[in-house]
Amino acid sequence: MATDLPMSVMGPDGVEESWWLFLEDCEVPGIALRSPDGMAWSADGDDIFDALSHIRLQIEPLGYQLLCNGARIDAYPSGLSRDMSGGTVLYVLKLGRAAQQRVSIFDRAAPASVGTVAAQREFFESWLAGPKRWPLTDRARNALADLWVRLRNR
Known about the structure:
Blueprint: E1 2-10, E2 16-24, E3 30-34, E4 40-44, H1 48-59, E5 65-66, E6 75-76, H2 79-85, E7 89-92, E8 102-104, H3 117-129, H4 136-152
């Protein structure tokens, strides 16, 4: 099944452009990217995230950055989400916190949140190496739920 998607791209001059991304989700996931002036790149991968990373590696030396969640420094797929979604669902990561927020790989991302494939991988490895704590609000909610159950069962 092939899908055509508009893709916002930040050029080397800092001007945002609209390009086209062609997604081929078959046995070997593939992506093609085409600029308005006819330049084109394509890549295959183990999943869509992998193929998108290969495309990014081709356009980064030219000064282009995709403005999508798949290019966010702080977003990365889990192994399970790669298996279940083919690499199209990512988690927004916060150092020292467990991953909770999921985002779609091709949804738009702010220019300040995107970076290189290397920076994204480095952030992911830092997140993996660090301790994971649940936010205080989650711990408080769980404690209140436990208290409610105990009071109700008295």
